Amino acid sequence: MKAPVELTAVERWRLLLGEAAEGSLQTGSGNGPAYGMDRALAWLYGREGSGDTLDRHGGDAPSQLSVPEWINEIHELFPKEAIERLERDAIERYGIDEVVTNPEVLERATPNPALLEAVLRTKHLMNPQVLALARQLVAKVVKELIEKLAKQVQRSFSGSRRRQQLSRQGSWNQFAARETLRRNLKNYDTERRRLIIERPMFYVNHRRTLEPWQILLLVDQSGSMVSSVIHSAVTAACLSGLPGIRTHLIAFDTEIVDLSAQVDDAVEVLMNAQLGGGTDIGKAVRYAADRIEAPRRAIVVIISDFYEGGSPHVLIDTVRSLRAQGTIVLGLAALDDKADAAYDRELAGKLVELGAHVGAMTPGQLAAWIAEKLK
C-alpha cells in the first residue's frame, strides 16, 4: 500500500480554491505532491466553462498531460476513493472516452462500475488489443458484483429450518440438543449420574421445493439504461444457477436479441450488448409471451424507462393478455444499486391498472421479490 500524501492546511486550501488563491496563499514553487495534485485536478476540471465554477489552472500555461500520464499521476498521488471519483468524472462528466480505449490507460485503471459503463459505451471503437484488455476489466467488475449479489440471492431462496420437524438421522450441525435431552430423560442413570442418549434427534432442513418456473428478463438497451443492463446481466447469471428456475435474458431496442443461451456468463452478455438506438417495448414483451410454457408459473420482468418508441397499444394489449392468463408482470424503471428511476409514469400507470407491478429495485430486492412470488 502506498503511503498517503501529506499536505499542509495551506496546500489543501490551494487545491480547493485553484489558481485564483495563489497570490493570497503563497504556496511556493511549482513542484512537489501538492503541485502534481493541482495539475491533475486542473487537467480534468479546468475544462469547465465559465460561470460559477472556480477557475482551475495548475500554472502559467495550460497543462499538457496526456490521458495515460494523468491516470499515472492520480494513481500515484490520490487515495483509492478519490481515484475512482476522478475516473468517473472523466468518463461521465467530460466524456473522455480515451480513459477506456487506450491500452496504457486500461492497464492502470481501477475496475469499478463507472469504468464498466464506459467500456460498454465505447467497445465498438476498440481494436482487438484494447478489447481484450477491456474484457479483463469487465470480468473483474462483474465478478465483484456477482459475489455481492449471490449472497443476497442465496439468502432469499434458501430454505428455513423448521424446528417442529425432527428426524433420528442428521449431521452434527442439525443436532437438536434440547429435544434430545427431553426425550432421553427417562434413560438417566441415577447411580452413575449420567444421561444415556439412546435416541439422538436432529432438525430437518427443508429447502423450498419449486415447480419449474420461467423468469423472463427483458432489458431495454437504450443508452440511458446502461446501469440497468449491467445489473440485469449479473442478476440473470445469479438466478440461472437456482434449481427449478429457467431464466431467459432478452435484450431489446427496436430489435430483439435473445441472450438466454449465454445467461450464465454475464461477461459475454455485456460484451455482446449493443447500447443505443430506439425502443420497442411492446415487441419485446410479445416475443417473451410467445416463449411462455406454463403461464401461471412465469414471471415477465420488463426493465425499461417505459418511453415507448413503438406502439403503446401493442404493449398494453400484450400485458393485458399476460395478466389474463395468470402470468406475473413486473416493470422495473431501474435495476441498480441506487434504484434511482426516471421513467414515463403515464404509460407505467396504465400497466399498473392492468395488474402489473411497476417500480424500481436493487438487484437484491428483485431476487427477494421473485423468491416471495415462487413460494
TrEMBL record:
Protein name per its UniProtKB record: VWFA domain-containing protein
Domain of life, per lineage: Bacteria
Organism of this sequence: Steroidobacter agaridevorans
Signal peptide: none
InterPro entries with a match to the protein in the record: LolB, Uncharacterised_CoxE, VWF_A, vWFA_dom_sf
Residue ranges of domain VWFA in the record: 212-371
SUPFAM superfamilies: vWA-like
Gene3D superfamilies: von Willebrand factor, type A domain
